């Protein structure tokens, strides 16, 4: 079965500094991976996805992520944090093997941006 | 406007009183799913549906039922709610599985006393 581990439950950065949110996955075959963002009291919005094309994926609002098969990682980065980036971020893997068709979410990383 | 709608948005109920949370999408998506979100646990999948009359269990199906009689609708049924089902619930839909983005509804906050 697939699984996702988000290595940090909380991350704090200063405005204008880089953001790194870490995600490791386990998969017995080539996965599809996603990052979603949830702003306070809002629904979830897709930031970006990896679907076995380019390993460096660019998303909305300046975010990007790199798929590294050798490290089983899909870390989310942004060069310069903005106050509006404060939210909870979820790494997600699509589990569509063995007759199941599930999405597996990580436990989330809450990003705090300090002025 | 393409969207997933859920009703009600907020619900307070008592233990054992049957309830239904509705979910509807207008994007002609094949795949629909229900999740619950609890602090520190992320989102966990309750049930999903690949098409009309095709449903399957997610990771936390106990105490829930679903049905998919029409492609656009995927209601979540709690036949005998208990306090441990107090949670934030999200419905989502996608064109298909694996490579496809899920679109999420606004959420339903359920409190069972």
Beginning-to-end CA distance, first to last residue of chain B: 36 Å
- Give the CA-based shape of chain A: globular
Discrete helix count of chain A: 0
- Rg of chain B is 13 Å
- What letter string, H or E per element, gives the SSE order of chain A? EEEEEEEEEEEE
Task: List the helices and strands of chain B in order.
Answer: EEEEEEEEEEE
Q: Biggest sheet of chain A, open or closed, and with what strands and sense?
A: 6 strands, mixed
Q: What kind of oligomer do you see?
A: heterodimer
First-last Cα distance of chain A = 41 Å
Number of strands of chain A: 12
In helices, the fraction of residues of chain B equals under 10%
Given as residue ranges, the uncertain stretches of chain A (5+ residues, pLDDT < 50) are: none
Largest interface: chains, residues each: A-B, 23 and 25 residues
- What is the general shape of chain B? globular
Figure out the total of helices of chain B: 0
**What share of residues of chain A is helical?**
under 10%
Uncertain segments of chain B = none
Mean pLDDT of chain B: 96
Q: How would you state the average pLDDT of chain A, rounded?
A: 92
Radius of gyration of chain A equals: 14 Å
């Amino acid at each position: 079965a697939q699984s996702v581990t988000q290595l940090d439950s909380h991350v704090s950065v200063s405005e204008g500094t880089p953001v790194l949110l870490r995600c490791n996955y386990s998969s017995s075959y080539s996965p599809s991976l996603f990052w979603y963002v949830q702003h306070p009291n809002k629904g979830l919005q897709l930031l970006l996805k990896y679907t076995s094309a380019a390993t460096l994926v660019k998303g909305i609002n300046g975010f990007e992520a790199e798929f590294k098969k050798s490290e089983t990682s899909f870390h989310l980065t942004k060069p310069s944090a903005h106050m509006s980036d404060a939210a909870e971020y979820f790494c997600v893997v699509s589990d569509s093997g063995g007759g199941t068709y599930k999405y597996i979410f990580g436990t989330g990383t809450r990003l705090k941006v300090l002025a | 406007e393409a969207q997933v709608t859920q009703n009600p948005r907020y619900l307070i109920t008592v233990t054992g009183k049957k309830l239904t949370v509705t979910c509807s999408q207008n994007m002609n998506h094949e795949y629909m799913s229900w999740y619950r979100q609890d602090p520190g646990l992320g989102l966990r999948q309750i049930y999903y549906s690949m098409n009309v009359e095709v449903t399957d269990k997610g990771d936390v199906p106990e105490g829930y039922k679903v049905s998919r009689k029409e492609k656009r609708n995927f209601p979540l049924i709690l036949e005998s709610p208990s306090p441990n089902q107090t949670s934030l619930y999200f419905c989502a839909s996608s064109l298909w599985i694996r490579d496809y983005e899920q679109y999420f509804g606004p959420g339903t906050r359920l409190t069972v006393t």
